[in-house]
Protein: 3-hydroxyacyl-CoA dehydrogenase NAD-binding domain-containing protein
Organism: Deinococcus multiflagellatus
Amino acid sequence: MVEQSRHDDILVLTIHNPPVNAFSPGVPEGLKAGLSAAAADDRIAAVVLIGGGRTFVAGADIKTFGLPREQAPDLRGTVQQLDAFPKPTVAALHGTALGGGLELALACSYRVAVPDARLGLPEVKLGVLPGAGGTQRLPRVVGAQKALDMMLSGAPIQATEAKELGLVDDLIEGGLLEGALAFARRVAAVRPLPRISERAVDGGSPEVFAAAREAIKKTHRGQLSPSLIIDLAEMAVNRPFEEGWQAEAQKFMEARESPQSRGLRHLFFTERESAKIPGLGKDTPLLDIRRVGVIGAGTMGGGIAMNFLNAGLPVTIVETTEEALDRGLGVIRRNYESSAKKGRLSADDVERRMALLTPSLDMGDLKDADLIIEAVFEDMGVKKDIFTRLDALAKDGAILATNTSTLDVNEIAAVTSRPEQVIGLHFFSPANVMKLLEIVRAENTSDTVLATCMALAKKIGKVGVVVGVCDGFVGNRMVHRYGEEARRLVDEGASPADVDAAMNALGLPMGPFQMTDMAGLDIGYAIRVHRARQRGEPEPDGWLDRIVKTGRKGQKTGGGIYDYDETRRPRPNADMQALIEAYRAEKGITPRSISADEITRRLTGTLINEGARILDEGIAQRAGDIDVIYIYGYGFPAYRGGPMHYAGEQGLQKVVDALKQYGHTPAPLLERLAREGKTFADFDRERANSSQK
Ligand code: NAD
């Protein structure tokens, strides 16, 4: 895995562990052997460390995180050997030097890089921290503030910036190895060797750390590893290197063993897994999508169009009236201009994107589109009419997609002569911002159409997850149960603010009622009315329905369940509280006080229970997919790994017990797994194995 090659008096150690030269078992052994050989050989004056293939070491091998310490690759030992090495060592960086890769480079005497290399310590994203000297060395090079910025955001910096910061000693234009060899020869005789571990930190005043501790309350609320990182960076300022180095090892283990890190690592793997569709080969042909059509320029259509404009694809957007078209276009332009004001886009970018957009009142203008996405009112009649017309006018091979949230995609596909071309592309609001895309595979959707949509999701920066057809697909079906349970909790005595606070404490930025107020109370109400009529039940008349009937529809009308001031912070409203109390009195309910723990168990329990049903029915392929959907679409905290992973952390039997205690019937799959002492991850493995057979 590590190749040794001599270039006169320089020994080059090249790391070969494709695709990204992760620090896997074998790499440290190879590096240590190379270093020992170089130390013992008088003819060697200096050592160059370089990555083979497309990158330097892009990080630790995350699969080894679960191993006992003795079996894990010995990054710290390698770093120590580098730091104590008696001859100059030069790290030659291209691609990315991330995490353990950057820590190796920091332990070398010098670092050189190609200008577009990227350097960073992204460990925080996996709920851990740099564990091989990074927290102690980075502040000694770039100063306390910059090191905190890099370690807390996890975002890499460009080599050109690293050069200005002194993190890189030289930028190499042209051949990296040749440049690194020339550099090594220049510094071969330098003594004493520059060692970062011997430097002091710039700018580490107590205020810097106090401000960082304050800032993470907002950016990393409830998370462990960011606060450990700050503690360690502060030690780099105030304590001898050796002390910080030892403390780092201990805190690294603490973070690594935490449920938060398990949750984030689960998301890391499961997100990659969700891009794979069982039974769909890598060689499935893809359609070429060059022109996109969007029907409807309302809340969703405008945002959907922006995704494609951002990716450089021309979009034709169709509306029924000039007025609706103008309004839709105005919203798109204002969104772009506000990004430009924040410095995220240039004025030219705004114009370039708007120039790719063609407004139209004629569906005939979609005849050349390769993909057409319908985003009109949620009404089966209207959608069927549109798909009938699309079938007549769209070119052969065009993908016909619907953004419906609740309607049956099979029924929509059935009005066309080409149901294999029809698919659901369920974007989330605001569609230009939210990362999730549920890709709804209907009965007859072809593999090519499905694979093309998965690839397209990636192209427009979305996380695409394949789901099957059912009412609400995966995310909305789960959130529907969750909403019901939240309302029941209020029926029984909790206040809406109690319910939201419990979910905020679990790490959700919005609780169920904050979410309802944002989405608009009328939307949920319309769905409840629709469902009741379908089932021949009486009109819904819960306390929330009564709030809607007072005309309060949520944030858009200035208030709903809560009142809002200019900062959009929710405040309880006394009249609404009275309405709830009157409702309870009318129904003969004696309110009881409900603990945050009960609220959390009941709300997560209903999510997990519905998730288990969805999984059993095959609407979701994997429990991991449900986690991805719920994290990216509904704000479930990534560090809890999604509801299904969270169930495993609690123990499935506890979830079953809570469901029964509060009057729910546990899903058969959930009960079975609990009985067998398994988790949903076990279920995913079982299903993957049986589909391979
Ligand atoms: P909206 O009312 O904001 O916009 C619908 C637009 O479609 C209107 O501007 C209307 O003029 C236009 N329209 C109606 N009939 C048309 C036709 N025949 N040709 C062209 N344009 C036509 O609705 P929305 O919130 O954008 O929802 C659109 C779809 O997206 C619905 O199916 C909805 O269920 C789904 N959806 C909505 C959300 C959400 O949060 N709002 C999220 C996901 C999916």
In short: Residues 109 and 132 are 16 Å apart (CA to CA). The chain has three domains: 2-257, 292-461, 494-587. The chain has a mean pLDDT of 96. The first strand starts at residue 2 and ends at 7.
